[in-house]
UniProtKB/TrEMBL annotation:
Keyword Transferase in annotation: yes
Example GO molecular function: acyltransferase activity, transferring groups other than amino-acyl groups
UniProt keywords, alphabetically: Transferase
Originating organism: Fulvivirga imtechensis AK7
Name recorded for this polypeptide: Ribosomal-protein-serine acetyltransferase
Gene3D superfamilies given in the database record: 3.40.630.30
Start and end residues of each N-acetyltransferase domain: 10-178
Residues forming coiled coils: none
Length: 182
């Protein structure tokens, strides 16, 4: 199932094989991987990942669906945004995101996440969106605060950081549809 969400600067769309170069470049950067639950990719695994993602859609349950964040002015991928609908009727959604280092701190993650959140709450009748964040990732913590997510929990040493080779904490944030619409 194809998806296209647009803002003034960005398009959120399905990944395509033409994204391989940019997707591989930042997904193999240890600084991008640091706060994620994946290690660096090789090119072959990256292509297989993209092909696998092309089979997934907005209504899939329990599966992570990865979408491209394209900067319209540059006509190429600058990051990705992912979600998984994790209850039986799809009304609970977890999100994640990654932006290339050269495009961070320019409001792109805010804009992309706001687009996806609006789509879920306004078009898909989602009740709640959650995000899990490494507490060392100050940029992501600030992003969720700006989007009015509420800190709901702190889970100790539940995630293994393959870059630093240590167990780290996660902070759980949530945003209810009723709070988003206020």
């Amino acid at each position: 199932m194809s998806l296209n969400l647009e803002s003034e600067r960005l398009m959120i769309r399905n990944l395509k094989e033409e994204d391989l170069h940019h997707f591989f470049h930042y997904r193999s950067d240890p600084e991008v991987c640091r706060y994620q639950d994946w290690d660096t990719f090789d090119k072959e695994a990256t292509l297989e990942f993209i092909k696998d993602q092309q089979k997934k859609g907005m209504h899939d349950l329990e599966e992570w669906v990865q979408l491209a964040i394209e900067l319209k002015a540059e006509n190429h991928l600058i990051g990705d945004i992912a979600f998984r609908r994790y209850d039986k009727d799809g009304s609970l959604v977890e999100v994640g995101y990654a932006i290339t280092p050269g495009h961070q701190r320019k409001g792109y993650a805010f804009e992309a996440l706001q687009l996806l959140i609006s789509h879920f709450f306004d078009k898909m009748d989602v009740h709640k969106i959650t995000a899990r964040v490494d507490p060392r990732n100050e940029g992501s913590l600030g992003l969720l605060d700006r989007l009015n997510f509420v800190k709901e929990g702190h889970i100790r040493k539940c995630f293994y950081d393959p870059i630093d080779k240590e167990w780290v904490d996660e902070i759980v944030y949530g945003l209810l549809a009723e709070d988003f619409r206020r």
